[in-house]
Amino acid sequence: MGITELGFYREVVKFISIGAAFGWHERNAGNISLWLLPEEVASASPCFDETRPPRKLARAVPEMDGEYVFTTATGSYFTDMDETSFCICRVCGGGSGYRVVWGAEKPTSELCGHLLSLAAFKRAGDGRRAVYHCHPADLVVLTNVLPLEDKSFTTALWSALTECPFVFPRGVGVVPFRIPGSPELADATAELIPERDAVIWAFHGLFASGTSIKDAFGVAHTVAKAAEIRLKIISSGREPLNAPSLEELEQTAGYFGKKLNTFD
Ligand code: 2HA
Ligand code: ZN
Predict the structure, then answer these.
(1) Is the pLDDT of residue 187 over 90?
(2) Other CB atoms closer than 10 Å to residue 83's CB: what's the count?
(3) Phi/psi of residue 47, nearest 5 degrees
(4) What is the pTM of this model?
(5) pLDDT at residue 95 above 90?
(6) Which is the catalytic residue, given 40, 67, 110, 228?
(7) pLDDT confidence of residue 6
(8) Rounded Cα gap, residues 174 and 223, in angstroms
(9) Domain 3-255 has CATH 2.60.40.10
(10) Residue whose CA is closest, atom 4 of ligand 1?
């Protein structure tokens, strides 16, 4: 079977197509990563070519040495995808580099942030193995008008919609301006992601994590929806008469077996 017929490939295509329809992926905006399970590697490996030259990473990821990661190609348009929009990389050299074993020659410009985050998930053993990066407009607007601070930004989202406390109980981290694709953006993201479900990049977009691409997409969708609601509340120009209390948000998370991050 070719890679394009495999379950993980089809799931990624399905969700990035939905993201593109949402307007989250102008031009070449957005990228994803999925740390492949042994059974996914086994089903894909007949198509691998392990002889391509290795490339160096700007940041080493020793925990990921030998692991396979499915990701998007640099410059690819999510509004116009085909097989050339993707690649599979194998981390090599003790985590100092990677080899493309299938697909496009050059992975996403944000590869470093993805790999550092996947390494953090592996270290924590928390079940996460996917990242969905997108550019939801309302969320980007909020980074212009709200303080770039994790606790208050998270509360502004949690209290917009009662789904939020149990969809992203770890909350969101906020990274101030960093150059897209830079190692500095990757470092700042990887520092926050272990304790957060998603990281917001000011004036840029969202980096959402999950146990699968569907799960990471679900986090992104819920954060983006909450951002839309919060922005509409702010834009209404009215002082809100009603809002859920922190206690009510905690109760909501608790009802679904989750505990809200206290940001202590
Ligand atoms: O891949 O979205 O952050 C293009 C981007 C960079
Ligand atoms: Zn981006």
Answers:
(1) yes
(2) 15
(3) -95, 0
(4) 0.98
(5) yes
(6) 110
(7) 98
(8) 13
(9) no
(10) 29
